Amino acid sequence: MKTISFLLFLITSLSFSQNLEETIYLAAETFIEAPSSNTLRILNKKEETFKRQVKSKDEQLALVFLQTHKGFYLFQESELSKAISTYEDALKRYNSNELSLISDFDIIENCLNPLGTLYTKTSDFTNALNTINQYIYLAKNNKNSSHQISGFINLAKLYYTLSKHETAISTVEEGLKIKPITELQKTRLLQIKTECLAALNQFNNTSIKDSDRNNYLFHLKNKSFKQAFIAFSSYKKNQLKQGATKRKIAQLDIEEAQLHYLLKQPNEAIKSLHVAIKTLLPTHNSNNLPNKNQLFADNTFIDIFDMYAEIETNPKITLESLDLSFYVSKLMQNGWTSQETKILNETNNRIRSEKSIDILYDTYAKTKNKTLLKTALEYAENSKSSVLKTIFLKKKRLQHFPNDSLLIEEFQLLKTQEQLTSLLVKEDLSASQINNLSSKLSSISIQLKKLNSKISKKHPNTNKPFNFNNLTSKLKKDNAVLIEYFYGKNSIYQFIISEQDINLNRIHFTLDIKQQVSNFINLFNKASTINNDIQNYTTQAFEVYKLLNLDKAPSSKNIIIIPDGLINFIPFEALLTNKTKTTLYSKMPFLIKKQNVVYNSSTVVYLNESIKQNTNTVLGFFPVFENETQALTYSVKESEAIEKHMSSKLFMKAKASKSNFFTNAPNYNVIHLSTHASSGDFVTSSNLSFFDDTLFLNELYSLDLNPNLVVLSACETGIGKLYKGEGAMSIARGFQYAGAQNILFSLWQINDLSTAQIMESFYKNYSTSQSAYTANQASKISYIKNESINNSKKSPYYWSAFVYYGDLTEVKSQNFTIYVCIGIFIVLFIVLLAMKLKRK
User: Is residue 651 located within the same domain as residue 794?
Assistant: First the structure.
């Protein structure tokens, strides 16, 4: 009886399984025959039911089939975010169930190819690159030349979008070598090459097969705008005949608007942009700009609103249009999970910020309304150190909710993501290894997106703009004035904020000003430059002080500098507050003598106070590198100074290994690294040398630190590839990302006795004050005043290399009262004892 019951159950289960598989295929095919918004709603309800029911691999494959066709429809309807989410779910389902083992379903054509394209269209460049590389690898292994070429087409488009035109052209050439190749694929590759050549101003109309598009680009390059418009109109007409998507039609309208603008027809240009808006938002019937709640994540909207802001002459409408661009950009950011993608997208936000600040500055000049300056500061902050700010806020949220499983999982995924990224940037990886890492990174990205959605619902509004009143209150508490720079394309803007006021200065760029900043920075390239012409140094140091309007800042004990662009590399402490003819450095009016200079990455980071640990035990690493060409002889003196003044655990020579650093770093409150460092180059990222191995920038991103202080006593730890808004991709920045908010690091190469002397003085002061920023100032002033040091060694080259980024920790009060009481008690005890003995 039991056997019969089991057989009946098995038959019923198999029948249900087969019926479920057929039901899923039937639902998909019904939708494919008549796709519409109504049939999509029906399909969505069925899909949710199917997700709960599927168990077998055949059922999972049927659901993948359904999802990829749903994703295709959403793509065609310009519902890009929904399309991405659908394709990602299908890909995860396909890979996790190993469906390639049971079917020849074309995952490249049906999922990976459109997904890579969608990532590019939504500016998710890291995921785009990982996805495209994956299916090129798969296509090559499967000997599918058609898919390989499709991969190179999308890869070339990606590089074109990133303005890497030479790389895009070489990618096109690589794709053209693959055989067999269809005429359509060849035409698409050559068209990308044409676009790149036009962008590089190397386009020759006779070098590539003639077409309306090429004629349009040729005339555009030669500024023959009327002929360009005629050729473009013909090209647009052909594209519409071929059945272009809504998104493609909108993009054609934008290009038409650009041509009208170049033809000095602003009204016609605005009309074309409204046509583009109407194409993407069919329900929008107004000639005004749409509301934010009508928009969705698509960079076509950004193109529209940026162009609108360029044409519009009304400042209010221009700001409204730019705000819509910022809003759509923020919607797109919700789908970005890698910091590389976020950094690459900062450039355009910077351009919008500068336009917005320009308008507000000009309006303030007329109205004197200080509220406009506060708004301008918010625009400056929006595009400054966004990745660092985000990670600081995430860590702060985790500190508030340390047992939240979602937040714990998020940080574990972020850590794994950075670990894999650090492996991916290493050299000599095989194609198989690159594909494996790319696949894992794609999977983590999908997990992070779903997790972020849950976290946003549980912890909403965690990224609110900073409160200006909180800023002024903190400045009052810190007895400080804050100076924030915005290094734009046309101007340097300087915000000066005190506890009572805010002011904004504009420095219009000229070749002389740019050269002046660069020349001053270059004075610190080697020790002899300043000493060989001291008068030249004093002249430049005062001129840059005046150029950067530091003389306009209110007098205060402390000055907080938030640099930007090239200004990141200026040692402000070494600027001179007055003209001087002296050649004695000890007599020069350095800014550090007048005010204590502290740096920070942004106003938001300055306001984000970290939780301090009560103890300050130093973890030190001193590889020394004995018997090598670049032995760090004076490094030993640093270690002796730390042992003399601080509780410490120091790893010397061979024990100063990379593994010991990773094991111990999270457990100490002060980390000191005295070693070699490099700012890197276009191929290699910034890095730090341990005795046995090199630590690269990306590896620091996977660390989770919360020290009171990090001291990087090494060359160029603050130098790296400079990204607009985000700053230098340096070793110091890596430690900041890892969680170090207070950090002392160097701006140029210096391995000298002077470093050891300054470090000894620093730790002597720090051991009593527990305040890094006061110890930093005291150590430098002490060095300048030290009569045993000769004048040439007092050059700012030797003492101003180290800059402190962090908060203004109050000096630890020395409770002398208790010592006085103890002293009095001891004296009284001795007197009483003496009197007693006398009586005896």
Answer: yes
